[in-house]
Automatic annotation (TrEMBL):
It holds the Pfam family DUF4291. This is Uncharacterized protein. It comes from the Bacteria. The lineage of its organism: Bacteria, Bacillati, Actinomycetota, Actinomycetes, Kitasatosporales. InterPro entries: DUF4291. It comes from Streptomyces glaucosporus.
Length: 86
C-alpha cells in the first residue's frame, strides 16, 4: 500500500508469438474500467486508511511453483501465502 519494498520477489513473464495472439483473441474475457476503484484506494491511502484501501483490492496469492522449477530459479517454498511484510 505504501509503495515500499515487498518481502518477496516476483517474476514477470513476457509473451511472444502465438501466445500474444491467443492472449488477445482468446484469453481476455473482460476489460473493466477501474478508475473509480483506483481513486478510492488512493484516497484511503492518502488518509492513512491502509486497511480500508487493502480491503478494496483482490487478494493476491503466490503461484504454485513446481519444486524442480523453484530450485532452478532459487525460489523459496511457501505455504500458499506471501511472507509477512516489514
Amino acid at each position: 500500500m505504501t509503495a515500499g519494498p515487498l518481502p518477496h520477489r516476483v517474476i514477470q513473464v513476457g509473451l511472444s508469438g502465438e501466445a500474444v495472439e491467443r492472449y488477445v483473441e482468446e484469453w481476455i474475457v473482460r476489460i473493466s474500467d477501474v478508475t473509480d476503484l483506483a481513486q478510492a484506494v488512493h484516497r484511503d491511502v492518502g488518509a492513512g486508511r491502509l486497511g480500508e484501501a487493502a480491503s478494496r483490492l483482490p487478494q493476491e496469492v503466490p503461484y504454485p511453483l513446481p519444486e524442480e522449477i523453484r530450485e532452478r530459479i532459487g525460489g523459496t517454498a511457501t505455504n500458499g501465502e506471501f511472507p509477512a511484510g516489514p
